[in-house]
Amino acid sequence: EYFETIVNGLGASGQSACRHNSDGACTNWQRLVIEKPFGKDLETAKHLNDCLHNVFDESAIYRIDHYLGKDMIQNIMVLRFCNVVFESLWSSQYIDNIQISLGEKLGVGSRGGYYEHSGAIRDMVQNHILQILSLVAMEPPVCLNTDAIRHEKLKVIQAIEGFTPDAMRDNIVFGQYSAGTVDGEQVPGYREEPNVPVNSNTETFVAFKLKVNNFRWAGTPFYIRTGKRLNASAAEIVVQFKSLPKVLYFAGEQAHQEPNLLVIRIQPNVGVFFQLNTKDFSTQKEIVPIKVESSHLSPNQGNTPEAYERLIYDIMRGDATLFAWWNEVEASWKLADQIISFRESQRQRFPNYTAGSTGPVKAIELLARDGREWWSV
């Protein structure tokens, strides 16, 4: 709520003024870094953006999202565009579904006042999740400069099928945690947290299915879930590839074929693993899944930068590649507003999941209706 006041103060003090050289270029060093929340909806985000542009040029504005500074988020493009085994299969022709899960064991703690006006959609979906999704689904950029990457990410967000009330009625689940046990410790429900109303209707969990309506992804669903006070603190992207016809090794009633999975672990155990099927050498005919795993943080890599360290370094260098462009923020808020409007129009039966669980039962049913399941994080 103070962003506008601070920016106007910087403008009035002359701190934002450019000193131009003979060629008209700005010679003084300018960086305005904005942490989330960037507005609470599209309208307030537009107002804030206009206020920033009244004082600063877009090139000087860095809308920071710490998830984009994480090693494995940056590794998504490398995995895709430096490995023919993945990029050649990276489409609806070979991929059955993609799951993005960001879960936390923690509750809102002392942030109840903030979270009550935010909820999971504003806190996680509008920013972190849609940024991750855009990197997973984007087309290869023509080069690795800031504008080229941002344009491809924006195309993904713009291609997401609109969230109509009818579509959301069957494809989205909201949740709020009740008291429970996490790591052997009794924890309060959301409505018992400090600064939270006893009849709060704010969601602490959301799961939904979305579609990216472009040539590459037509027919492949993306399943999203994020929540607080879950059974695990983990962030993962799971790419499930389509299964082969069950006519050879997988024929017969007792045969079971596990799908190939590419799992990108963002946190806490950073790394990548690929699941494939192989022969069980202890039997004659059994086929079993194995995981080919690689930890991204190997001993010979030394001390790797934390997300904010990397982002602050990029700010100092003037590299905005890992920062949200206004067009991305605007497109993300358009989608988030549709979800928020739908949630507010529905009477929620909260709380509907116990702290320390995997979330609401309906989130499991969301995938079960499609003959799928959440892969555990």
What's the structural domain tally? 2
Radius of gyration: 22 Å
CATH topology of the largest domain: Dihydrodipicolinate Reductase, domain 2
Strand percentage lies at 15-25%
Helix segment count? 11
CATH H-level homologous superfamily name of the largest domain: Dihydrodipicolinate Reductase, domain 2
Sketch the major β-sheet. 8 strands, mixed
Q: Give the helix/strand class.
A: alpha+beta
Structure in words:
This protein has 377 residues and is α+β, with helices and mostly antiparallel strands. It folds into two domains: 1-64, no CATH class; 66-368, Dihydrodipicolinate Reductase, domain 2 (2-Layer Sandwich). 33% of the residues lie in helices and 21% in strands. It contains eleven helices and 14 strands. The strands form four sheets. The protein has an eight-stranded mixed β-sheet, with helices on both faces. Strand 12 (271-279) and strand 13 (287-295) form a beta hairpin. It starts with a helix and ends in a 9-residue tail after the last helix. The mean pLDDT is 91.
